[in-house]
């Protein structure tokens, strides 16, 4: 461990190009490596050098996050939060990576107040990994007439990223008021009029609004059934898309009124279209 930390500290002390604004990914990954090797409570000389590098890299990240926020406020979020194509971008599964740290750094999420206990069949907050949100938004190719409704939106990053990266409106429906307050504050801080948050139970949603409904398994059993029945009813009069991530995807795939839009991709967000 000590040898590996020494090698990393020496490499990072010399690699000043890491401070350049466009090296955000490398900085985030270097910070993760430092975290893994340098115990926070260690007061030794090597640990102090590691802490100095950490402060240097975090300061560079903070500047970059603020520059991206400023671009979002000017309406240039799509390019500012643009991610270089890479092979890993669509990696299946629910693990998090540097893109989640990018989103957490850019979106000024405050700490939510304490969340109330959820009723049975309602699923606790866990964000969709950011790479899947980016991948989904690219595949949906939303335009200004689209409205993406995230049923069970948590801290709101799916509607927020929709408003940042596309011309569409993003609406979040969330039962936990503390999460709604944080998401609204974030939209306001970034001047995102196209990201809106409703406090309420998804079963009471106005399903007439929305060209895309997104569910990261927010609920199961009879709650999910009620929401899907309401969507099926809505599909009698108009077409829309329903997207699923996590265990609810299998339930969506079995709905006779929905058809998969593309070949099933295990561990990625599935997109379904209402059958005419
Ligand atoms: C797995 S998280 C998904 C968060 C978000 N959609 C995302 O993908 O990042 C599920 C969220 O659904 C919320 N939730 C659970 N039951 C709900 C209900 N009946 N109506 C609205 N929100 C609900 C939870 O509070 C939680 O924030």
From TrEMBL:
Top-rank taxon, per record: Bacteria
Enzyme class: transferase
Domain Methyltransferase: 149-217
Molecular function (Gene Ontology), one example: methyltransferase activity
Presence of the UniProt keyword Calcium in the record: no
SUPFAM superfamilies reported in the protein's UniProt record: S-adenosyl-L-methionine-dependent methyltransferases
Enzyme Commission number(s) from the entry: 2.1.1.-
One GO BP: methylation
Coiled coil: none
Entry keyword annotation includes Methyltransferase: yes
Key words of the record: Methyltransferase, Transferase
Protein name (database record): Class I SAM-dependent methyltransferase
Species this chain originates from: Rhodanobacter humi
Organism lineage: Bacteria, Pseudomonadati, Pseudomonadota, Gammaproteobacteria, Lysobacterales
